[in-house]
Design a protein that fits this description.
single chain; 1442 residues; seven-stranded antiparallel beta sheet; 58 helices; 45% helix; 10% strand
Length: 1442
């Protein structure tokens, strides 16, 4: 059967003709020069691990010379890396006697691995002495002028990568001496050094210690120490020399860019900044760079942008020694102190010329122009003299080629004493609303073409931060850039689809169409509200635009109608004439925005939507389905006041009004368009003084004792905790605490049943020193507080909660493992708990039990529950609802609440309604209770009257009854007779008091009944504020701030609503974060800072992070932000890198042990829970298959493998057909469609598989559609019984080489995993070999066991090594297709016979897959818009082809 035909042949031709930019299988497996070399020397097929002998002539002639001739082309380096040259040849063969070429090649390939984000430093871990030797030689060669600048740039890249990897002990050991206090030997004068050393006593101690270490060393060690302390100084002087070279090459520029990146990295982390910043300022690095010819060359825009970033770090307001961030006041005081020093020198030595400067107030001399005017009166010699008196460097070694002329000295003085904006002031000036200038800013456009070959002027998220403010500033810059990147992509895509053209009249019209934009007439400005006091911009600007929906289909119209207040839209002015001129190269300067025809982009927020009569549409769905709906709308918008003010200023200067030319409105999908509230939240935090909890502060920044925030090191550790239903029995308790002493409490002598209360009798933790060290001591293991922990265990009888079945508590039934118990104990205690949960190890169950324990042990505390996705949050919330937690204390914020699989409504408004429903139900019970007691009056009218009834009637009756209970002479019969609530409990299971119960039993039942009544009145008391409050918003906010104790939301919702929630006075004590490794670091941070401090301290007591850094990281679209800026870093993964103690769950209960073995190599201690080995479903074979998992090699289908019709949209028709045929085969055997998921590694393949399924299966009842077809990335956190996985790539491995993705892909299946892919591509990949060695130990052709239906009765282990019944091997796609076709024909005939229908050739439409079928591919648009795209084409006309 031919596949669906969507993509035109031109796209296929483009994909076919596109030259390969990266190595292919042919490069690695074929007869390329390097491949032949590898097979001869290090990829030999002979068995046995022979010692590697490296031949220098091979290195020089066959590798180095080839690379040098090719200008070290990145593709050639990638080929060598893919051939395992580093790990299998260069490093095993390295020794101290190795040649320089050997060292250079190791450095080159290390940088390639770093650029590809592959694990690198672990390769060197086995030989620390040789690594130290290698590193020393790299440092020496980086100063070697006989090497070309291109080679030295590669060496500098190696060093940059090393300083980014200080979490590796071996690397840190080599890097630390290069930035130690010894580098202060290179300061300009001894006097300056003494001034610096006198600032703190610790500096003098460090200096003396460094001197003693040098004096006591032998000659060789002294030489090494001299080299280490002079290395950075020498490298910096060489950089200065290059800045002032008269003849400059592109290699010079690249080297300087990399050097600026390097020193910016050094200054952005405290351990490397502490002494380096003083040296660089002493060398006047910023003035020298600013005045250099290289900087002022107009082609070097990147270097100028890097200068701005370097200047930010050099002058960052922090104490370089203590790491304490200066407040704005402290920063200004320090600035004034420097000015005071200048004034004193001026008055003492230059009184006649600088009297005005010396006597002026600080505010009049701290601006560059004013200070320059005052200093102009000095001669050149006097300028040098004043600089010298101020301890500023006035001479350089000749090699630096820096001329300290008047201009240079003046720049040094000005840059030293001018007032600069703090990072908070810079953040305040950021406009979070994009314009055409910010969207098409050259520095942002530069990220589009990022490939790792050049640096970028972007801050990086690193292992450590200078301060919380520094982290927030970086996050703000990066999140803003990434948001603008996405907005620009969307607007560009809209214009590409709209195809703007010019009419003869010169007017622009749009020949195409898109659902995300509409042409509009120019906006009308309705109101400009005057500025607030102290502000210079309007406080609000309101505008109105008209929308015409007449040409829109219902689906698209609904999307536009779904716009809500505060949604962001973009008003765009498009001129097709400008686009035409830019395309033809007309005009002096052609910008990227001109090429799209963009004149203006302005951002606006929706205020309200009106119908054609000007009435507000409050309920879009009701209006859309109503009889009076209109095809036109009016959209009232809030325009950005800052930009409006600037625009009007331009109009006043005679420039055109930009709002007159706006002719297009663009919207974005909701999940992508939350940038504005998130940026506002980050900026608010950046500008605030909100601290982190003191116990977490140092660990967050990356300093101090890694274990310092864990509960064993905190003074507020709880000594006794009730673990309730955590332990199922005594054996479970003992088995769950291995290595710990369990002692029964004083009131018992032997084992007993739950609930268990554990009391720690360890020695108390030491108090945390108030003078915490900023020095990172990762080599030191956390000190053990006690060799063996001892717990005293006691129990109690749980209180009787009432006679009704609903009163019985819900109990945990999970038999937690010892690792899970360790995580639960840690999470229940105060402090930081980091839980690593490999696939299937029960992270969610652990998090749920932690929340349950906190809820019952600390009833006054409130817990914030955060997850990356609505799906994960809902799974966790559903389990919480099933526990013994009162539903009135649960609250779910955000729209994902609608998908909750529970009976209750846990949203804010749903909870308010629930409270009122509870009130009505309980008031009826109050009336019934009053009637049973014979109390006259309307006691059930309100919660207030019910409370009155309780105090006047119920409580006195109970007090009177307790007197009888307390009377020791009263019998059980007396107590039963005196019980005042017999009539009320007449509807409870009878008898209420069993006749066999003794006196204590009767008292227990009576008290349980009263607890039931008390709970009713307690809940009515909680409902009373909802009777008083009238506005729904007030009720909802009261619920959040006063009633809810467990509040769940996604990390995105937290980021969007942070300011709003904090302003309500919302306080919480605990944060539990699920999927923490999939959440970006700023979204990890915001939930920790969603409340205002109390008495200067945060109330936060616990942070529990659950995740798995071995699976996928946060999804960042842009390669520049993902790899260069490291925006994909999560707080979870960073804490793991920092050595924070983690608890790793070590037993999986998801998959068959054989399937789990495919990814257990990533988790060395991961075992299997007993049930995956004992339950029948895990022992039984998969019906119709010989193996429970198999890798199936799929060769080219009709001579073709992968194609790439649009960038990164990769498809493989052979694998798509094979996957669908496999699915059809399983359905014919009776496998439920809901138990089968089809995964792909690329979105393009997902679209193609969906297309083939739609054609072959969707309308065929015997097949139907699988549960889901999606990408591996989207399926993280999910599972299914049977997974069909398409690897897609046939030219190279692609991003599956990131073993985190492979881990996710292999761990989704429970019972069956069938992978279709190209064997030769994946089996040669070094990173994937642990998994593929197992996969390829089985045949790579699908082996079926025919003649059986699902479920099978075969036992897998009984067939081990034997042939399966009716074994059949599928030779390829066509063979499987023919087999499925024949099965389908038989199935159809069987069904017709069973239904008594006549035999007809109903299967004539069912044709097998044939080699001559026309192969067609799905385009990217079809994947993005799915069925909507076809509907829009019919209603709006044809959309342009892509």
């Amino acid at each position: 059967m031919p596949t669906a035909k969507r993509l035109k042949s031109s796209a296929k031709a483009r994909a076919r003709d596109k030259p390969p930019a990266r190595p292919t299988v042919a490069d690695l497996e074929g007869e390329s020069e390097f491949a032949r070399l590898a097979k001869r020397h290090w990829l030999k097929t002979s068995k046995g691990a022979a010692k590697i002998k490296v031949k220098n002539d091979v290195l020089k002639k066959d590798i180095w010379d080839v690379l040098e001739k090719d200008a070290f082309a990145y593709k050639s380096l990638l080929v060598l890396e893919g051939l395992q040259t580093l790990e299998s040849y260069l490093w095993p063969g390295y020794s101290e006697d190795s040649s320089n070429f050997h060292v250079l090649l190791i450095a080159l390939l290390t940088v390639v691995k770093a650029r590809e984000k592959l694990e690198t430093w672990s390769i060197f871990e086995d030989r620390p002495a040789e690594f130290s030797s290698l590193f020393s030689r790299v440092l020496s060669m980086s100063l070697d002028h006989t090497l070309s600048l291109s080679v030295r740039t590669h060496l500098l890249n190696f060093i940059i990568f090393a300083f980014q990897s200080l979490d590796w002990t071996s690397v840190r050991k080599e890097c630390a001496p290069l930035v130690s206090i010894a580098i202060w030997h290179n300061l300009s004068s001894d006097a300056k050094r003494e001034t610096k050393l006198s600032q703190t006593p610790q500096l003098k101690k460090s200096w003396k210690a460094a001197g003693k270490r040098y004096d006591s060393a032998d000659d060789a060690t002294k030489a090494r120490l001299r080299f280490e302390r002079a290395w950075l100084y020498t490298l910096t002087l060489d950089f200065l020399r290059l800045l002032y070279e008269e003849k400059r090459t592109p290699d010079d520029v690249l080297y300087c860019e990399r050097f600026v990146e390097f020193i910016s990295d050094l200054l952005s982390q405290l351990p490397t900044r502490r002494y380096v910043n003083t040296l660089l300022q002493d060398l006047h690095i910023l003035p020298a760079l600013r005045l250099s010819p290289l900087f002022n060359d107009e082609t070097n825009a990147l270097l100028r942008d890097q200068y701005a970033l370097l200047s930010h770090y050099v002058h960052f307001s922090i104490d370089d020694q203590t790491g304490s961030q200066h407040s704005r006041t402290e920063a200004y005081d320090r600035h004034c102190a420097e000015l005071g020093k200048l004034q004193r020198v001026a008055l003492r030595h230059f009184k006649e010329k600088l009297t005005v400067l010396a006597l002026s107030n600080y505010g009049s001399i701290d601006k560059r122009n004013e200070l320059e005017n005052l200093l102009e009166v000095l001669t050149d010699d006097e300028l040098a003299q004043i600089a010298s008196l101020l301890q500023l460097r006035t001479e350089y070694p000749e090699s630096a080629k820096v001329v300290l002329d008047r201009k240079f000295l003046m720049e040094v003085l000005l840059s030293t004493f001018e007032k600069r904006k703090t990072f908070q002031e810079t953040a305040q000036d950021f406009n979070i609303f994009p314009t055409e200038e910010s969207l098409f800013d050259p520095s942002l456009l530069r990220t589009d073409d990022y490939d790792g070959s050049r640096p970028l002027a972007l801050p990086k998220l690193k292992l450590q931060y200078l301060s919380v403010g520094d982290f927030l500033w970086r996050a703000l810059v990066l999140y803003r850039c990434e948001s603008f990147y996405g907005i620009r992509k969307d607007i560009s895509d809209v214009l590409r689809r709209l195809r703007p053209e010019t009419r003869q009249s010169g007017e622009t019209f749009f020949a195409g169409s898109t659902r995300m934009a509409l042409p509009i007439p120019r906006p009308s400005i309705l109101e400009v509200v005057p500025p607030l006091v102290g502000d210079d911009k309007p406080s609000a600007v309101r505008a109105e635009i008209s929308l015409d929906f007449r040409r829109l289909g219902d689906r698209v119209r609904r999307e536009w109608d779904s716009l809500r207040p505060d949604d962001v839209v973009f008003l765009v002015a498009v001129d097709a004439a400008v686009q035409t001129a830019a395309t033809n190269g007309v005009g002096k300067t052609v910008t990227e925005s001109n090429k799209l025809g963009i004149i203006t982009v302005r951002t606006a927020e929706v205020a309200q939507i009106l119908d054609d009569k000007g009435k507000s549409i409050r309920d879009p769905s009701a209006y859309f389905n109503g009889p009076n709906r209109s095809p036109s709308r009016k959209l009232q918008l809030r325009i950005d006041p800052r930009m409006y003010k600037e625009d009007m200023e331009q109009v006043s200067k005679g420039k055109p009004d930009v709002y007159e030319r706006i002719n297009l409105i663009v919207r974005r999908s909701g999940r992508e368009n939350n940038f504005k509230p998130v940026l506002e939240s980050i900026r608010t935090l950046t500008l605030s003084e909100i601290p982190l909890a003191s116990w977490l502060h140092e660990n967050f920044l990356g300093y101090g004792d890694p274990a310092g925030a864990t509960y064993k090191h905190l003074p507020n550790r709880a000594s006794k905790i009730d673990f309730r239903d955590t332990f199922l029995d005594w054996q479970h308790l003992v088995a769950s605490l291995p290595g710990k002493t369990i002692e029964p409490g004083s009131d018992v002598t032997s084992s007993f049943g739950p609930p268990y209360v554990l009391e720690s009798i360890d020695k108390p933790p030491e108090e945390i020193s108030s003078q915490a060290s900023k020095k990172r001591r990762r080599d030191k293991e956390p000190s053990m507080l006690a060799e063996i922990e001892t717990y005293k265990v006691s129990t109690y009888k749980p209180p009787n909660l009432g006679p009704y079945p609903v009163d019985a508590p819900k109990l945990n039934a999970v038999r937690f493992t010892s690792a899970q118990i360790e995580a639960i104990i840690s999470g229940t205690q105060p402090g930081l708990t980091v839980i690593v949960g490999p696939p299937g190890t029960g992270k969610t169950d652990v998090a749920t039990q932690i929340i349950n324990n906190i809820y019952h042990n600390f009833p006054e505390q409130r817990t914030l529950l955060i997850a990356h996705s609505n799906q994960a949050l809902n799974q966790l919330f559903t389990k919480i609802v099933a526990l013994d937690i009162d539903e009135r204390h649960l609250l779910r914020l955000g729209h994902g609440e609608e998908e909750l699989d529970t009976e209750g409504n846990f949203s804010k408004h749903g909870r308010v309604e629930s409270f009122l429903e509870i009130r009505d139900r309980y008031l009826q019970e109050v009336n019934r209770l009053a009637a049973s007691m014979g109390a006259p009056g309307a006691h059930g009218n309100s919660a207030e009257t019910a409370g009155y009834f309780n105090s006047v009637y119920v409580q006195p009756a109970w007090v009177k009854f307790t007197e009888i209970i307390n009377d020791s002479s009263s019998s059980a019969a007396d107590i039963i007779q005196a019980f005042p609530f017999h009539n009320f409990f007449s509807n409870a299971p009878q008898p209420l008091f069993p006749t066999e119960d003794d006196r204590p039993g009767v008292v227990d039942i009576a008290e349980g009944c009263y607890r039931h009544i008390s709970k009713m009145f307690l809940e009515l008391e909680d409902v009373q504020p909802f009777e008083i409050l009238r506005r729904d918003r007030d009720k909802a906010n009261y619920l959040l701030t006063n009633e809810a104790r467990i509040i769940a939301m996604t990390s995105t919702h937290a980021a969007m609503r942070r300011s709003e929630i904090a302003s309500l006075g919302f306080h919480y004590d605990n944060v539990v974060m699920e999927e923490a490794a999939q959440i970006t670091e700023i979204e990890n941070f915001i939930p920790l800072a969603m409340q205002k401090p109390k008495d200067g301290q945060m109330a936060l007591q616990r942070v529990v992070l659950c995740g798995d850094h071995y699976q996928n990281s946060p999804v960042i679209q842009s390669l520049a932000f993902r790899h260069y800026a490291n925006l994909e870093q999560s707080l979870f993964s960073r804490l793991v890198r920092l050595g924070i103690p983690v608890i790793t769950l070590d037993q999986q209960g998801r998959a068959r042990p054989s399937i789990a073995a495919l990814y257990q190599w990533r988790y060395p201690n991961l075992g299997n829970l007993p049930h995956v080995e004992s339950l029948p479903e895990f022992q039984t074979a998969n019906a119709g298959f010989k193996y429970d998992y198999q890798f199936i090699n799929v060769p080219d289908y009709k001579g073709r493998g992968e194609v790439e019709p649009t960038p990164h949209f990769i498809q493989n028709i052979g694998e798509a057909e094979y996957a669908v045929a496999l699915y059809q085969y399983m359905r014919l055997l009776g496998y439920p469609a809901s138990k089968i998921s089809i995964l792909t590694t690329y979105a393009g393949q997902r679209a193609l598989v969906k297309d083939v399924l739609a054609f072959r299966c969707e309308n065929e009842a015997i097949f139907g559609m699988p549960k889901i077809v999606t990408t591996v990335d989207k399926y993280q956190g999910e599972q299914n019984d049977y997974i069909i996985l398409s690897l897609t790539r046939t030219s190279r491995v692609g991003y599956l080489r990131d073993i985190r993705r492979l881990t996710v892909a292999l761990s989704r299946a429970r019972l069956g995993l069938y992978i279709v892919g190209r064997r030769e591509v994946f089996e040669a990949c070094y990173e994937l070999r642990s998994a593929f060695d197992l996969l390829l130990s089985r045949p790579d052709k699908l082996v079926l066991s025919t003649g059986e239906m699902w479920p099978s009765s075969r036992i897998l282990f009984e067939e081990d090594g034997k042939a399966a019944p009716n074994e059949a091997v599928m030779e390829g796609v066509e063979h499987l297709g023919q087999f499925v076709y024949q099965m389908t024909v038989s199935k159809v005939k069987q069904l017709r016979t069973e239904q008594g229908l006549p035999d007809e050739d109903e299967a004539s439409e069912l044709k097998p897959i044939r080699a001559e079928d026309e192969v067609q591919y799905v385009d990217a648009a079809s994947d993005e818009e799915d069925e909507e795209q076809e509907e829009i084409k019919q209603e709006l006309g044809d959309i342009p082809e892509e």
